[in-house]
Design a protein that fits this description.
The structure holds two protein chains of two kinds. By secondary structure, chain A is mostly helical. In chain A, about 80% of the residues lie in helices and about 0% in strands. In chain A, helix 5 packs across helix 11, helix 6 packs across helix 8 and helix 7 packs across helix 8. The two termini of chain A are about 35 Å apart. Helices cover about 35% and strands about 25% of the residues of chain B. Chain B has a six-stranded mixed β-sheet, sandwiched between helices. Chain B has a four-stranded antiparallel β-sheet with strand order 2-1-4-5, covered by helices on one side. The chains are: A mainly alpha, B alpha/beta. The structure holds adenosine-5'-triphosphate (ATP) and magnesium ion. The site of magnesium ion has 4 residues of chain B, from helix 1.
Chain lengths: ~270, ~260
């Protein structure tokens, strides 16, 4: 430690100038304020109209608080399909994502072009809303659970690759360097030195994605991609609010139950 | 055999900083060399150029049959498999077992699909186990690396390089994170590797007395140049000043002796 001081005294013991950032901060705040005002004007929130429709809305809300429990047996197949879709999509999506994540991290992929290309594609995928993805796939492969699963898988790859490659980026690269120094290729070094380090993070991301899938799979059906969503679309177009109410209740229970299960599991992992 | 020859070697980092300049050295196979110098003198740069972790920018560097300046891809990996490396911070994958860490020394000889599946060959596991036996830590083989003490982790790292069956071992301040007694244990391990297996050992050290005790040859570095090269016994006060630019102080020696 004394050694550092001694050398520093000769070569580089000059205080650097503090970099100025104030201009950037002010500019950022101004831009944010401008966007907020513009957005408020854009959506044209109309308070008087909300008041005018109030009585109508009250009637519907009352219906919504009275679920038609007799409808339950008819919702079972859709309920099961929703869970199936979420589970299948999570399994396939996370399996495909793991190797891709290694190519999307600077820590495990030295090829800058491949890295940039992959990250670009992943950003693109993530920027497409899941329900839009489902709508497109329904148009391509037809109504049913299949386009729903496909949409979720693509959506999941976007999420998991991002999160896991970021976990890799943040990981200590020492063991990886040691493997490279022993003559391993990048692929082998990534598998042996980095994978064990990020496995808990990966498992946690997979569960997190499962939670997202449960929620998403209940709604992507609205565009015909299977599960409870299709049912919602049916009862809603016939104004059967008692039945809609039951479906919403089911979704609520499903999401809360599975999410708390998954959260409990995640806590045990870390 | 794997002699190491530096011929007017220079290293310039991408930011333009000169890490090594005009280094000429001849390190015959089987040497036990200590490299000393101030922080920033270029000790790590010197050692890391030998296995290509830092590319050289001028001169000629030969390690055994390999010439560093044109070694890349497959040839560089071949060279690296013959050269083990030990780090100050051990660089173990802490979340996996000690055995898996040692087996990383066998990755070069393991096919891609076997490494992906973790399906190690029996011979390689055997090699890893006997490497762990040599550093007397085989009883921890199936424990997580993170559960070991610093000294134990460094010995696992030594076992990892031994599993490579290397001709050369490079050690970059292997004892800088360890307490004095443990430092001596690790240094003795390195000394034994050199004496028993005939492996060339090049070790960077902060403490002059450690280098004198365990190495037969001392290389002193300052500002990227070799300013001393000779037997430890010849490193007197004047030599010391040429390396450190000042006289010896208590901070430069590690006095505690090993507990056996
Ligand atoms: N990647 C790099 N890019 C630019 N400069 C570097 C890089 N690595 C090292 N250096 C510089 O090269 C010089 C020599 O560094 P080196 O790590 O070889 O020193 P060292 O003798 O090992 O010091 P220490 O005892 O602190 O480990 C230092 O001044 C350092 O700042
Ligand atoms: Mg160093």
């Amino acid at each position: 430690m004394t050694a550092i001081g001694a050398l520093g005294a000769v070569t580089a013991n000059v205080r650097p100038v503090k970099p100025r950032q104030r201009g950037k901060v002010v500019a950022t705040l101004l831009v944010l304020a401008a966007i907020t005002v513009w957005a408020g004007l854009g959506v044209q929130i109309d308070l008087p109209e909300i008041v005018a429709n109030f009585s109508n809305a009250v009637g519907n809300v009352v219906q919504l608080t009275q679920p038609d429990y007799g409808f339950f047996p008819k919702t079972i197949p859709a309920l099961v399909e929703t869970v199936d879709m979420a589970v299948i999509a999570t399994v396939i999506g996370s399996a495909i994502s793991l190797p891709i994540a290694f190519f999307a991290s600077r820590a495990t992929n030295p090829n800058t072009w491949l890295l940039m290309g992959l990250r670009f594609v992943m950003n693109l995928i993530r920027s497409i809303p899941d329900i839009l993805l489902a709508a497109i796939l329904v148009a391509v492969v037809g109504v049913g659970a299949l386009p729903g699963i496909m949409a979720l898988v693509i959506f999941n790859i976007g999420i998991i690759v991002k999160l896991v490659s970021e976990a890799l980026d943040g990981e200590d690269t020492g063991p990886h360097e040691a493997a490279l120094a022993a003559g391993a290729s990048w692929l082998k070094a990534g598998r042996s030195a980095m994978l064990p380090q990020i496995l808990p993070a990966y498992a946690s991301q997979v569960l997190y994605t499962f939670e997202i899938n449960i929620r998403a799979s209940t709604v992507i059906g609205l565009v015909g991609a299977g599960g409870l969503g299709i049912l919602i679309d049916n009862v809603r177009s016939f104004f059967r609010y008692h039945e809609l109410s039951l479906i919403i209740l089911e979704i609520l229970l499903l999401v809360v139950l599975l999410e708390s299960f998954s959260a409990w599991l995640r806590k045990r992992l870390i | 055999m794997a002699d190491i020859q530096f011929n007017h070697v220079g290293v310039k980092y991408p930011n333009g900083f000169v890490g090594l300049s005009d280094v000429t050295l001849d390190i015959p196979a089987g040497s036990m060399v200590g490299v000393v110098g101030l922080s920033g003198a270029g000790k790590s740069t010197l050692i890391r150029s030998i296995n290509g972790l830092v590319p050289i920018s001028s001169g000629e560097l030969n390690v055994g049959d390999h010439r560093l300046s044109n070694a890349r891809g497959r040839e560089l990996r071949q060279l690296r498999s013959e050269v083990g490396m030990i780090f100050q911070s051990f660089n173990l994958a802490r979340r996996t077992t000690v055995l898996n860490n040692v087996l990383m020394g066998r990755l070069h000889h393991t096919s891609a699909w076997r490494s992906l599946l973790g399906a190690w060959q029996h011979d390689d596991v055997e090699l890893a186990m006997s490497a762990l036996e040599r550093v007397e830590i085989v009883s921890k083989a199936y424990e997580k690396a993170s559960s070991l003490s610093g000294g134990q982790q460094q010995r696992v790292a030594i076992a990892r390089t031994l599993a490579q069956q290397p001709q050369i071992v490079l050690a970059d301040e292997p004892v800088a994170s360890l307490d004095p007694p443990t430092s001596h244990v690790v240094m003795r391990d390195l000394q034994r590797i050199n004496a028993d297996l005939g492996i060339t050992v090049i070790v960077n050290l902060h403490f002059l007395d450690l280098a004198r005790t365990y190495c037969t040859r001392l290389i002193g570095m300052r500002e990227g140049r070799v300013v001393f090269d000779g037997a430890g016994a010849d490193a007197d006060e004047r030599v010391f000043e040429s390396i450190y630019g000042r006289s010896l102080t208590a901070a430069d020696v590690l006095e505690a002796k090993a507990e056996l």
